[in-house]
């Protein structure tokens, strides 16, 4: 048995035979040519053939892996039509009287080295794309044949793979990808994620055709690649594979089903998101809404406040994507611990207890109003809830309501339509818990932020690893607080959710349902797991 | 010549896909359209140069549009940025 360690870019276990994939080496020689026009015509012909192949590949990829995975072939077509690329080739042919194959190969080397020198991992990975289009052209010019077909389901082992190579493979017959090179941003990685098959990169092995046909295991959970595994390793991995498959199969069957206990109690099962890019995962995992949309990402990593228009576009896109399902947007939750220099927040000893979140918003209502306007404007496109973080008093809630009413009036006066929105607060301070009976009279919902609530209640700084041992979110104090909030809220017709990490803690799901919690908002990838637990409750 | 500034909001920055969309849009106009990130610049109709700038999210870029249709081109490009980048 041989064992190699690498980096897993997608999990799961595959067991099967290896198929070594080696590039057909075409040696490009530099030749002196006399007929420049003829050489240019050869290039034009090869280019239009390449364009044709790329549009076919695009269609094939759309069918195999969906539009997102196919887009790269559209990018390839544009690269092939790029003026820099074309001029480079033409100039070599015209000025140096070289053959087109050589000119194309030089262009490929030149542009791919520009990308591989960039300090951005994603851009580095694009070097492969430029190489890929040059190789395609050279292939066409030398009448090369396509890659050999996969005879049986195989683990693809290669030095590196280009998008054209991977898409031409028969998807049904690929069990896993293993490459020596490649990055987490490479197409192999992206494709693996889309196809849901394990993939390892950085496996330090000498690629040899003799490896083809050998039995192997790809363990994407540990990043291990075994060739000719011994019986013990094999049975261990097979067992693990079976458990995973069974679990996945069960969870898949839960898509489109209600999150309802056997006794018929429904729980709203929503997802937490931190950026637009999480939306895909929300839909894929069949979340029933978004229970916590952290709007901070709009404010971080930039030099100025996001404008109303910018925010509006983002909120609109999210609610439209969710198509009528609830989207709860939490207003800016920023403090001195987060990087937003343009807010000019003074450094503080204790940012967790400092000038942050709603405290900033109420102190600088003009800033708050921009966000509220954007949210309210987006509300006509779907079903929005607005949630305010770090509230500790009734006065704050009154101020919030007053500002929201002002903004609504301004919008209506300007003939701008707004939809119905629910308003709620994050329950994350012990103060909010203790006066939740009063707050519930003024709000439509509560969402319990268990992470902060635990930190503030147990007086434990989450950043201090020494305290990890005593940081217990299951502490009876927390559970009693949740019960108190639920009871107080329900008395006033207010619904209650949990959006902290505790919401996804399946050892507590039963308890939460018993307590009367109406909604759980969890990471998108955990939606189906929690639904499974809910559906098995009596 | 028309100019405008824009702060990139696309989380991934001007990667392959956003770059190709931008090139497509710019190519609709006759005007010469240049994008500046500090001192560096690129012709917005040229995909490789544009990608090679490696513009990231939250960076501020300047556009300079010059040519017979610069009015409409600048206006459309700005609109395009707001919707897509």
UniProtKB/TrEMBL annotation, chain A:
Binding site for phosphoenolpyruvate: 294, 330, 451-452, 462
Entry keywords, A to Z: Cytoplasm, Kinase, Magnesium, Metal-binding, Phosphotransferase system, Pyruvate, Sugar transport, Transferase, Transport
Swiss-Prot/TrEMBL catalytic activity: L-histidyl-[protein] + phosphoenolpyruvate = N(pros)-phospho-L-histidyl-[protein] + pyruvate
GO biological process, one term: phosphoenolpyruvate-dependent sugar phosphotransferase system
Subcellular location: Cytoplasm
EC number assigned by the record: 2.7.3.9
Keyword Ribonucleoprotein part of the UniProt annotation: no
Domain Phosphotransferase system enzyme I N-terminal: 6-126
Top EC class of this enzyme: transferase
GO cellular component, one term: cytoplasm
Active site: 187 (tele-phosphohistidine intermediate), 499 (proton donor)
Sequence ranges assigned to domain PEP-utilising enzyme mobile in this UniProt record: 151-223
Location of the PEP-utilising enzyme C-terminal domain: 251-536
Function: General (non sugar-specific) component of the phosphoenolpyruvate-dependent sugar phosphotransferase system (sugar PTS). This major carbohydrate active-transport system catalyzes the phosphorylation of incoming sugar substrates concomitantly with their translocation across the cell membrane. Enzyme I transfers the phosphoryl group from phosphoenolpyruvate (PEP) to the phosphoryl carrier protein (HPr).
Stated name of the protein: Phosphoenolpyruvate-protein phosphotransferase
Annotated source species: Anaerosacchariphilus polymeriproducens
Gene field: ptsP
TrEMBL record, chain B:
Compartments where located: Cytoplasm
Gene Ontology annotations of biological process type: phosphoenolpyruvate-dependent sugar phosphotransferase system
Domain of life the protein comes from: Bacteria
GO cellular component: cytoplasm
CDD domains in the cross-refs: PTS-HPr_like (cd00367)
Gene3D superfamilies: HPr-like
Stated role: General (non sugar-specific) component of the phosphoenolpyruvate-dependent sugar phosphotransferase system (sugar PTS). This major carbohydrate active-transport system catalyzes the phosphorylation of incoming sugar substrates concomitantly with their translocation across the cell membrane. The phosphoryl group from phosphoenolpyruvate (PEP) is transferred to the phosphoryl carrier protein HPr by enzyme I. Phospho-HPr then transfers it to the PTS EIIA domain.
Stated name of the protein: Phosphocarrier protein HPr
